[in-house]
Amino acid sequence: MTETAAAPLLEVSDLRVEFGNPRHGDVASVLNGVSYQVSAGETLAVLGESGSGKSVTAQTVMGILDTPPGRITGGSVRFKGEELLGADPERRRLLRGESMAMIFQDALSALNPVYTVGAQIAEQFRFRRGMSRKDAMVKAAELLDLVKIPNAAQRVREYPHQFSGGMRQRAMIAMSLALDPELLIADEPTTALDVTVQAQIMELLDELCRERTMGMILITHDLGVVAEVADRIAVMYAGRIVEEADAASLYAHPAHPYTRGLMASVPRLDGGGGQLDPIPGLPPSLSAIPPGCPFHPRCAHAEDRCRSELPSLRALDDPDATGDDHRAACHFAERFVGASPEEVLTP
Ligand SMILES: Nc1ncnc2c1ncn2[C@@H]1O[C@H](COP(=O)(O)OP(=O)(O)OP(=O)(O)O)[C@@H](O)[C@H]1O
Ligand SMILES: [Mg+2]
User: Fold this and answer.
1) Band of the pLDDT at 285, cuts 50, 70, 90?
2) Domains of the chain by start residue, with CATH
3) Rounded distance from Cα 321 to ligand 1 centre (Å)
4) Which residue intervals define the domain ABC transporter in the entry (predicted)?
């Protein structure tokens, strides 16, 4: 298939999802044209406040969006060139686990308390690889060892409650890697963990992706968490990508006032950056997204044009961009891309 040989691992284009019932007029436009790509071996971090559509995008990619209430109303999800939206459910089921896997936010509730951790990992080898119980447990122990759980051969027989939070998250990672996926989606994999353990889990994910040339989508609302591991960052707001760049350019030259706002609201690792300023106001209701730029009611720089004209996501001239295009959906992005954060935050 030469025409797909150069296709990225995952290509999401103009994805649109609604919740609610159009007949009752209570439709929430949750995804409003989300596009992003992930290549093999690349980590894309997806950032944004709660409710911006990060998880719904991931669920649509995985084919696990609840439908109804969710409805995919447009766009495309291609995995190595193959269109997944509308694909046969059996094909989707096969791809899940084998080709793409997802780690969920809450490892405690994702593990079943009545089975040993090992048995839960081994299940995939038994049912998808036809292995004996004994061989599957050996593989499970190898995976626990791979995710750096000490004494894996013993601990494989323990129950989830005997594992610490960090170890449970490691076990979830082990489970997601069992069938050697090419794409891993980690949806807030560290939110329930303390800061030191968060850093260890991030380091582990980063290492595993590099070793296996696995593509990863790392979903988080914590900019601090992704600094070390992301190759590229996409920032979501109200169901759209509002800025995307390689990680270094995004940190050095954030071009969207929303991205700048997110950066000003997290502590900097080097202790610099002065006081923390949360973004004023709240994200819009997805059943009444304001006209123009959806961020304009919260933006200190909004002008008339921002209240009427939706900015498209367009490439910027960022002389320091190290990799891909730096793109932002702000009418005045050029004004901000070279400015210091303070200049932009205080009008
Ligand atoms: N099953 C559902 N029924 C109705 N609305 C839903 C459903 N799932 C998600 N939504 C809505 O879709 C929007 C986007 O949700 P999503 O879970 O993708 O946000 P998120 O960016 O992952 O946020 P968080 O950081 O809190 O996880 C939210 O407004 C949410 O209320
Ligand atoms: Mg989420």
Assistant:
1) very high
2) 7-110+183-345 (3.40.50.300)
3) 32
4) 10-263
Nearest-atom number in ligand 1 for the CA of 53 is: 18
| β-pair partners for 240 | 237
Mean pLDDT of the 323-338 span? 86
- Paired sense of beta strands 240-246 and 82-83, if any: unpaired
Q: pLDDT tens digits, residue range 37-52?
A: 999 999 999 999 999 9
Q: What is the residue with the minimal CA distance to atom 16 of ligand 1? A: 53
Q: How far apart are CA 31 and CA 39, in angstroms?
A: 22
- Average pLDDT on 103-125 reads 88
Residue with tokens 């000003």: 264
Contact status, residue 144 vs residue 121, Cβ threshold 8 Å: yes
Residue 131 CA to residue 17 CA, distance in Å, equals 39
DSSP string for residues in 183-227? EEEEESTTTTS-HHHHHHHHHHHHHHHHHHT-EEEEEES-HHHHT
Report CA-CA distances (Å) from 243 to 79, 235, 285.
23, 5, 21
Does the C-beta of 51 come closer than 6 Å to ligand 1?
yes
Q: For ligand 1, say whether the CB of 291 is within 6 Å of any of its atoms.
A: no
> 213-266 pLDDT, tens per residue?
999 999 987 777 787 899 999 999 999 999 999 998 898 889 999 999 988 876
